[in-house]
Amino acid sequence: MNDPVKSPVSGSEDGPEDGRAVSPATASIVRPADDVLRAWRRLADAAVLLDGFHALKHAVRFGAEVPVAVTADRTAALALADELAPDVRDRLAQLLQEVPQEAYRALVPRPHPTAVAALAVRPSRAAHLAVLAHTPRTAPVVVLDNPRNLGNAGAVIRLAAGFGVTGVVTTGTMDPWHPTVVRGGAGLHFATAVERLEVADLPPGPLFALDPEGDDIRGLRLPDDAVLAFGSERSGLSAELRARTDHLLALPMRPQVSSYNLATSVAMTLYHWSTGSF
Questions:
Q1: pLDDT tens across 113-144, in order?
Q2: CA–CA separation, 256 vs 50, rounded Å?
């Protein structure tokens, strides 16, 4: 996965285009756009697409290996970094290479308003499995049982990263590293362990599954080593996961309201865990 093209930074003998001084720590060689585009095409099939400035910012912040990053407007991208991500601004300056707008648009399925995209190396599955299996845990694992909506899965991963959970596991056919999921997660896949597993291979720990027929969650404290399972948006929990569940829990809901959005259900459950509430 490592690409010989060095991570570029815009600049010349007269200094960078945004007027900032270039230090040895942030300066690198400006590569022709054609070289960068060739590197992109060579890596794209096996890499994780980081679609937009925020996805790249978060991936870099949480240690992702990013062999190539492009933007249609480097000045604007670095201005965003100055405003929203000064902690990784220098690293983004090293990585981002400006390419023509039409070239950028050809690289991504849905051009992002920030006109930034990058490719990252997918983290080691073995390393993630080791994290998920390790006990004792200080934070739960979230399980999405056969999810169907890519955007919802991404939103859940973003939530999970914010709460500092151990990881997010999906069952079923959805790839949790699909570009639409990564876009919905704003690149925060790199802040937690994200993997797809069979129900039989779920991480150890007491399994609490959300179900309308379960016990009111407000009457139970969720332990740090909990495995928190949420059914698909339409069909709920699978029979296989339900059979393995230790506790069925229900979120408070007004009568005649059909359901909560998946990400909302996860947020409510993780907030309940984080407060240590009964």
A1: 999 999 999 999 999 999 999 999 999 999 99
A2: 40
